[in-house]
Amino acid sequence: MSETSPKLRAELDGVPAYVPGKPASTDGPVAFKLSSNENPYPPLPGVMESVLSAAAAFNRYPDMACTGLMNELADRFGVPVSHLATGTGSVGVAQQLLQATSGPGDEVIYAWRSFEAYPIITQISGATSVKVPLTSGEVHDLDAMAGAVTDRTRMIFVCNPNNPTGTVVRRAELERFLDRVPDDVLVVLDEAYKEFIRDADVPDGIEIYRDRPNVAVLRTFSKAYGLAGLRVGFAVAHEPVAAALRKTAVPFGVSQVAQDAAVASLRAEDELLGRVGSLVGERSRVFDGLVRQGWTVPESQANFVWLRLGDRTLDFAGVCERAGVVVRPFAGEGVRVTIGEAEANDVFLKVAESFRQEL
Ligand SMILES: *Cc1c(COP(=O)(O)O)cnc(C)c1O
């Protein structure tokens, strides 16, 4: 056997592995998974029915154009079908955007810390990441991000609210930023947690994109709609960008099960958004509880909270796990804790309280 391996692209060297949220452990106390920002509610019966019925035909390829879902989205958001593109989760769509815009020698700007998929998919594209630190308030530093634009910049991610800090950028500052970015640089508004926002000054990306051809909006069914396991997300963008997304899509990437579940979820939106409302209520309860315990917590507009624990991060995550809640540590920085069912949040608050007292 030869020792030589096939030639692989040098860009793959050192690509960090995506760290999935740890599953809840099956032994020990009742375990809750608060590590992946998933929706804790089980599928709605009606959505389940559409999934089972689509599953009965999985010997067939899905509708490649996602016709039913595209029409439903076009109606729901008041955009032409030609401005829509679906993909295998919004991470899949983000990867397609990079494939469409960026390669070796190009630069992609994003805040840091932000969504951990950004460095991975940027490096795979061959482009160079330009990470702009969050402000001391854990918010995107949009002035610094605009200042980081060069002739080589092809794409900028704005994660709003930001994962893992939950912080937002508001309308006026975002508009000011977009006015500064050159028209030929694509700005991607990643709105994975849009439905959890209650701050009226946070703009809806789909309103912002309408008169800005260099803005694309990413949305997902994974979080508020509870379809994380089915892999379906979408972009809203002007025609050249949406067309490029259709070219870069994996053929038949979005299964019929996912397409039908997404349509059923849009039709059950009232009920699903009611669940989001309950989670937002729990978010306030957890936030208030933490503040009362003496923690400094950035105000979150998403379905998680962020505790900057520095070198105590892994300690804290370990204590949480032993108490039955699995959280998401970023070693040396902090812990992101998903808002779950009330019982899970209670366990987390209790652990946070005793940890706080020992600090
Ligand atoms: C969860 C998340 C996504 C969506 O992921 P899917 O691929 O749609 O499951 C996108 N962006 C951010 C910032 C996220 O946290």
Automatic annotation (TrEMBL):
GO terms for biological process: L-histidine biosynthetic process. Residues 1-20 are annotated as: Disordered. Gene3D superfamilies: Aspartate Aminotransferase, domain 1, Type I PLP-dependent aspartate aminotransferase-like (Major domain). Its EC number is 2.6.1.57. InterPro entries: Aminotrans_II_pyridoxalP_BS, Aminotransferase_I/II_large, ArAT, HisP_aminotrans, HistidinolP_aminotransfase, PyrdxlP-dep_Trfase, PyrdxlP-dep_Trfase_major, PyrdxlP-dep_Trfase_small. It comes from the Bacteria. It is an enzyme of class 2 (transferase). Residues 1-12 have a biased composition (Basic and acidic residues). CDD domains: AAT_like. The modification N6-(pyridoxal phosphate)lysine is found at residue 223. Residues 32-349 form the Aminotransferase class I/classII large domain. Keywords: Aminotransferase, Pyridoxal phosphate, Transferase. The keyword Electron transport does not apply. One of its GO terms (molecular function) is aromatic-amino-acid transaminase activity. PANTHER family: HISTIDINOL-PHOSPHATE AMINOTRANSFERASE (PTHR43643:SF3), HISTIDINOL-PHOSPHATE AMINOTRANSFERASE 2 (PTHR43643). Belongs to the class-II pyridoxal-phosphate-dependent aminotransferase family. Homodimer. Aminotransferase that catalyzes the conversion of aromatic amino acids and 2-oxoglutarate into corresponding aromatic oxo acids and L-glutamate. This is Aromatic amino acid aminotransferase. The gene is pat.
